[in-house]
Amino acid sequence: EDDKDEKVTVSCEEVWNRGSYENRGEDNFSVAHIRIVYKDYHLQELILNLLYSTTNVFCYSIDKKASAIFKEQMYNLSQCFPNIHIASVEYQVDSAGHNMDRAFLSCMSLIRKIPHWQYAITMQNHDMPIKTNEEMLAILKVLNGSNSIDLVQPFSSRIPDDRDWSFKALQLFKNTSANDDRVLQITKGNVGSVHSRQFVEFLIDKINSTTFLSRFDKVIYGNDELYFPTLNADDNVGKFKMHEKILAVSSFASCYSHFYRHNTCIYGYKDLKVLKNDRHLFANKVLPSVDYTGIVCWAKYLAHRATIKSHEQSIPLKIYANMPAVRFNKKRTFWKKNLSKFNCATGN
């Protein structure tokens, strides 16, 4: 409950006593976790504890509508660790997706200046990890620089009726000489995604998002599902393609909790048996107000799993290594010259 959550004190000593933050991680491979948050401080601290390592990076973009107490809690938390950062700009984010991309980009701009991390993962307030940090690192390594951004055809009703979608009209590139008559192909995907460092640097260093995002402000619902997928998918832009979604599982064949929000299952303790065997990195979503027992039970399971030596070796990495985009990247020089021969369905 919100009133109980607001009573959670966030002195560094209390934070350190509530969790274990001794995981050193890996010196040569780490992840930047980006979360847009607005409530349920205790859940944010719990997830931080599950994913924490001294070499990972954590950036929180706080929704402008969050309570003053929640903001204070998050800022206090950031003072306890050198690798936790708060985006300097607060955006008014809503469930329809408005300002979601700007909030993510605010964190990306911040972490762009931090060296050493190889992948950035974008998440929302109630996304729950279903893999340990070690398991995530093992999976991300085999992606070989590929992104994991879900790509599907967008609903025509969600594309603004602007006639000119050329690079020139969008002023898409910061280098204006690249803004020619090529037309940007709009693609839809999910908010939660895995972004390679190369892609994040490309977005921050090369792309001017102003006109693109302003046009999609007109979209009533789902405008947050278009920016990153489009720039990932268009062959004329960055060619960072990956069609397989490994980040977040948003629904199962059966929702054992029988709770839904926007047609998305709210996972509870009855769903945990399915989460144990799922190949995704996160579950979207959990709500403390619906089933906090399930959240605590899962967190205890994941924390225990992380203590088992070499537990990440049980992950079937071939599933991820055989994804078409990963196989493409392994021989990218050849396939770029022979693109018509590559089978996107099989990776051959």
From TrEMBL:
Gene Ontology, cellular component aspect: membrane
Compartment(s) of residence: Membrane
Superkingdom of origin organism: Eukaryota
GO molecular function annotations of the record: glycosyltransferase activity
Membrane topology summary: Single-pass type II membrane protein
One Pfam family this sequence matches: Branch
Record's keyword terms, sorted: Glycoprotein, Glycosyltransferase, Membrane, Transferase
Keyword Membrane annotated: yes
Protein name listed in UniProt: Core-2/I-Branching enzyme
Organism of origin: Enterobius vermicularis
